[in-house]
Write the structure tokens for this entry.
Amino acid sequence: MNALIISAIMGVLMMFSGILLKRKSTIRGLALAGLLVTIILNVMEIYGVHLFRINVTGMMSFDRFSLFFNTIAMACTFVFFLLSAKEMEKVGVNYSDYFALIFFILSGIILSSSFSSLLILFLGIEIISIPLYILTGSDKRNLKSNEASLKYFLLGSFSTGLMLMGITLIYGNSGSFAIDAITNPETKPGVLLVAGLLLLMFSMAFKASAAPFHFWTPDVYDGAPTVFTSFMATIVKAAVFIAFIRLFYHAFGEIHNTWKFIIAIITALTLFIGNITAVFQQSVKRMLAYSSIAQAGFMLMAVLAINSIGSEGILLYTTAYCLSTIGLFAILVKMKDYTFEGFNGFAKHQPLLAGVAVIFLLSLAGIPLTAGFLAKFYMINAVINSGGFLWLVILAVLMAAISVYYYFRVIQAMYFKEGEAQVIEVSTSFKWVISLVAALVILLGVFPQLLFSWFYF
Amino acid sequence: MGVTPILFWILSVMALFSALMVITSKNPMHSVIWLIIVFFAISGHYLLLNAQFLAIVNIIVYAGAIMVLFLYVLMLMDLKKETEPQKNRWLKLAGAVAGGSLLLVLIAALKKADIANQIAETRTGDIGLIENLGKVLFNDYVVPFEISSILFLSAMVGAVVIGKKE
Amino acid sequence: MQVNYYIYLSVALFCIGIVGVLTRRNAIIIFMCIELMLNAVNLLLVAFSKMHHFKNAAIDASAGSDGQLFVFFIMVVAAAEVSVGLAIIVMMYRNIHSVDINFLNRLKH
Amino acid sequence: MIALLLILIPLLSGVVTFFLKKENSAKSWALFTSIVTLSVSLLGLTVLNKTEMLQFKCDWLPGLGSSFSIRLDGMGQLLCLLTAISFPLIFITTWHRSYKNAHNFFALMLLSQAGLMGVFLAMDALLFYFFWELALIPVYFLASIWGAERRIAATFKFFIYTFVGSLLMLVGLIYLQSLTPDRSFDIKAFYSIVLDGKTQNWIFWLMFVAFAIKIPVFPFHSWQPDTYEQSPTAVTMVLSGIMVKMGLFAVIRWLLPVLPSASFAYGEKMISMWAIVGMIYASLLAWRQDDMKRLIAYSSIAHLGLMVVAIFSESEIGMQGVMIQMFNHGINILGLWVIVEILERKYGTRKLSELGGLAQKAPAMAILFVVVALANIALPLTNAFVGEFMMFTGIFTSPISEYEMITVPAAGLTIIIGAIYTLRMVQKVIYGNTNALTATGTDIGLNEKLVLGIIVILILVVGVYPQPILDLTKDTTNFIINKANILPLLKK
Amino acid sequence: MKNALELSYLVPLFPLIGFLIIGLGRKYLSKPLTGIIGCGVILASFLVSIWIFFDVKEGNSGVVDYFNFISAGSLKVPFSFQIDALSSLFLLIITGVGFLIHVYSVSYMHHESKEHFARYFSYLNLFVFSMLLLVMGGNFVILFIGWEGVGLCSYLLIGYWFKNTEYNYAARKAFVMNRIGDLAFLIAIFMIIAKVGSVNFADVFSAEALQKLSPSVTIITLLLFVGATGKSAQIPLYTWLPDAMAGPTPVSALIHAATMVTAGIYMIARSNLLYSLSDVTSNIVAYIGLATALLAATIALKQNDIKRVLAYSTVSQLGYMFLALGVGAYTAAVFHVMTHAFFKALLFLGSGSVIHAMSGEQDIRNMGGLSKKLKITFFTFTVGCIAIAGIPPFSGFFSKDAILLSAFEKNPILYGIALFTALLTAFYMFRLLFVTFTGKFRGTHEQEHHVHESPSLMTVPLIILAILSIIGGFVGIPEVFAAGGDKITEFLSPVIAKSAGHEVSHSTEYMLMGLSTGLVILTIVFAWFRFKNYQPKEEKGFGKVLENKWYVDELYDKVIANPLNKFAGFLNNFFERFIIDGIVNGVGRAVNYGSRQIRLLQSGQVGSYVLLMVLSILLLLVYQFFIKK
């Protein structure tokens, strides 16, 4: 609750900061400070410090899982700010508004990680989506940005329609929006419930960019300004997954036999399409868009597993995935040429950046000693421990092997090929931060309990 | 057959017919008009279900504000009906067939719902009255209500960001 | 009225909306069709709300009002969405002087 | 303690090497630490009975049922010794070769050594997997950065190929873990699982594919000749001398004892047959190669095929043969690669058709080369004879085999073809008359003499008196065979 | 004084030390020193061997264990030597003849450079070492070690002049052919291990073990025999031996005539208890031996290379020995090994002397009339020819007679063919003698001018061997001549059980001896008339077939080597590239192709995205509600 309110207030503050503050660095500083405060207050809430006592009438519950995830999401946002906030200046003139929108999105993220009513889920998802439509289109004179924005908007609203139909049907069956009152374990799930559940699943799959509802993802991620792609491909997607898991764990966990297979199909399709399509991409940015679909396939395995390993794993997965992808995007933003060829000879000119990029790529590919490996490991472990679906696991690892193909193309370009990779000036502080992020990725890959011991205290 | 069913059927036919007209009209302006008629028909349904508050809000917000906005934008763009080139016929057909099949599947599935024969009370029940809804809204739903303000704020910021000339 | 009539009606409207989205090229019309879908949902929600009220009024006098409130929130969201959506469409129109979604083809493959 | 040191020394010194910018200091440092590692490994041999010196265990991922548990058993001792011996030899051999960004090269080499050590020491399945990959990745970079012209495609194929395998293995390991009573990755837990045949079959194939790719067993071998050809020779040495042993090792430690009935069901009947087909196939191919690296690669496939057959014969003698042969093959092939490295550096070619007459120009090299080549064809009194003899005996007298009169002669054909291609290689390289390229040849230098000398001495010593090694691995073998042998169960 | 058995390790140790010293010090040792060390170590071995021989004669035989070579599980292979009558006899032959050949070599190889000279002697010493291991080995594995070791040395020495590609091929051929036999030998060893659990001769030939082995004794003995055909150049693996003449002549004398090639005989004689269990194998051994003897003899008729004639003659004589083994006359076979070692070494060294005199010329068509200039060589060569032809009282007569007699007992037809072969032998040997040493000189003037008798280091061994060829047969005088004259049978009886005595009557025996001697002398006379004034001419018809060795090499090439090579080429160029690697790369390409196709789904059109989404929803709903049970 602390974080929700503070981030909303921060959003408002940032809205006005554009008028009051002239220097962009001050705005950035304010945002960073505000976010830091939010994080601290959120952590304090974990330790029982509640700034606000509000009766939420059972519509939200800030349990350890959600608070913990919120911390991760905000910490990743913090990293994102540190690495890329400066780049947002280049997008357009409304510098402070971008921060405001991001803070609003953070509120939405907090909502969708702590809802216990479908209404809050709906609101949370919408609060995430609407600012995103705008951020996507924020580079107003760039036709690609425009196009992406409109596509995202049209398809997003369409999926909102699906979601609402789903919620309605569920409501028709159970007469309540509270997620723990939706299913009745004693009776067989009614047709309305199943239909609603599926429609809800499809719309969540859409938000999580799972195949076959992923079509918006490459276009939007490609068209959006790269800084915002970085944000929405990581933190936002992570939040959607947390919402997804929360919903299916709490609301539909008891009737998992009805939907598990469908999820398995979606997971399989996502893994397949995401990985296979990424292979042929020529632009690293677009490749990362497909890779985010592919990673979503892995994260869906936590939804499929609905067990504690899966929930634990999704936290690690989102952390690993967010850190790596944000780091990679932060480097990508600095590049003049987003194609693979643009990276040729990068290692020679920027050995440090190339080195950390390798770590991020290895993490995304799931190579041991990086957080990405343990994340994938958790997912596989979760599915295997939930019983069945070995075929899916095997498909997943085969696809992971394919993912190596396109991630390593970047490594090959950087290290093994000759070329003149063009890079914008990078500051020393940027190098420090990104090295720390890379170190964190490795640290989490070797000692993931650093994350979990905190989770379990 | 009482008045209620008759009204129900009239309103339903009206809504469906207007909805079909929305998607088939060549002229976007006509589509808007037809859509407004759909909203009126739906408001009629709300009244029939004794949800007066929503009926009014629907008229004001949807048929009023939103549709006017649409009209305004359309007029701003001055879209003639010729300007909308028709989609590939096969794609259209595919779209229609897909939507139709979805309808069939959903109805075939939901037909078996165990609540199918329950009654949605019409013309009675006072939960749809402003007073009652207001009580619930400001007692139980005050948090979401406040949260929706975040939504509005962000939409506002967004509209400004997008709309403002640089 | 039996609730299944409302179900059929709403589903029909919903699907008409979908067909509209599928068959039209004008972004505004498509957006209108999405609004149509939302309205179908609203109608169904109200119907369910009244159904639950009818069933549970004895236990809880305000039973079913949450459905109607949900409709209220949907309208709120729809209004916000429309404002943003139309802004985006207008921005698009400013750049390419068209609202034809078939022209949205710079990003593909 | 010793076990931990074996991993830590190369790991830490590898990390340190990244920061040594001068080529010579990186080189010397790498050589120095690898010799330290060797000494530690030798020290390990002297304290065979002090188990507390040879093992180390601490918590690592308690939530996942995994711990950092390493132990030096007989088989581990042997393979760690092989690893420890190989690296100094590799460094000495390539002493005069100059690498671009040498510090990175040596750092990655040391890291791969740490990975290899870890694989041989790990007593925890997850840890094992970690090291398995840790060994692979530096090698991938080494080969891709410092390799030959077509390195990128070739090593990439290698990497993806092996990565697919190891991921499947990971699935298998996790599956096994989910079946252990206490959800643990500990090897003891794995050994205590009792599974029905059907489950075993599933997991068996998942894991075996990984090992088969690594070994490689026909028809999963196609990455190998390309990779060997394209990698810098120092890396090829690591790859073929030690890394392929990982596959065999893993089969022995993680497959046979854990999934005995599936191993029994497929190993002897199916895999052995394949391996034998592969042996003959690879031998025939080796016969037709012109590039020495490819020739040796195919020859290695043939030799490893025999080891696979011997492993699945599940006989004690055969298994002992495999153990000693893992060591021997590592030493022998290292010797061959040293020769290749020398030839390539001196004459710029590895093509048999372009070499010749070096016996006149480089008699010392020729002699050492011949000894190594003879070891490659398992001539008696060389180390390989002991291994191959025992393996063949094991296969022939295997308690589970029914077709020994077919398998052994078929596998034995490779003895003949092996002689053909190895002698062909010897002949083309050192015999005949010199040509324009080799006419100016000179004999090998002191460091190369030293390396080849050590290798030849190892070849002969083990060939004449292999008993110490056999004694070293006896307990491991007994244990594995007892775990793997399900004949008593079947009889019941 | 210690027991000789305990010092038996010295016998192979000396040559090993010699090998190491010469091999490692090849750059530093002068040629004379190399020669002295090389010969000295063999002499030392020879002396120890003599001592051992007499010790054994005293009845002092046994097995000496040194250390565990391999001990794993139930398999225990000790490194042990078995010293008994058979091995001590072979020790004498090997070290004795070996010593003479070493001495001969010092002079024969004197024109080689220092290092190559040393290389030669180190190989030679290594060979002796391996050969000693072979005959001393107390079990099959040690025997096998020596067995392959001698193969290796043979390889190294055939290819001694490594610049010559032809020679290298010959060396490789020898090694590979031997390996084919070795494989069979190995399998036999495995079978013995499987049945008996031990490889020690003492265990394998015990009554209990023989009982266990008897069900599969035929296959085991056959496999052992295949091994022997490789080493001892019998059909079908004989073709390497004539080619092996590429090596220096003393090598041919030592390895390819006197010692190594008789390893097969030794091995079968060693396993005589096994062979007597299987009639089938014995018959096969006899027939193969006889066929080889005949075939090689016919080829030898038309060969013009002096060493090749001798090589085929060796093959033929080895066939004889196998005939003896096959008919159960193990002693006769061993006896023939001994006499053959004497006279064949003599002949080879003699030919070496001729070649030496002719400055490397080996074609007898370019010789002739050498008897005048090479008196000692001519004389000793003649002795060798008489011995091999089997004219009493030369050594060949006794051993050959023993074989013929045994063959006669077994089957007169065998005897007939064997006798015919003996006649052929006499014919081609004397053809060789006459063509080389009589008539007119047919070489170039330069050669003629150069021809000279070899130095004494070469002639003395010739003379010693000639004496041995003359008197060597007296250790096996048939019982008909002198009771108790057959000392060799007596001596070998602990290893090879004495047969009950010949069944044929003395008169028959006399008649047979007379017949063979008479016919041989007639043949020699015939050869004299035919070849005393030999002029070379083109061979035609059958002669050409013989000159081309029945085209067996070509046949092998066509039927085995070429198809195999082509098959390997097919595998390399097609199967590996397009099937194995093709599938792997194909997977990659399929992924790439799939990527290009699937990416088309991403058409960029919102309409198609929605359509695809709706269709997916439709399918999933249909699955959930109407298909899923």
Summary: Chain C has a mean pLDDT of 91. Chain C is about 75% helix and 0% strand. Residues 65-96 of chain C form the longest helix (32 residues).
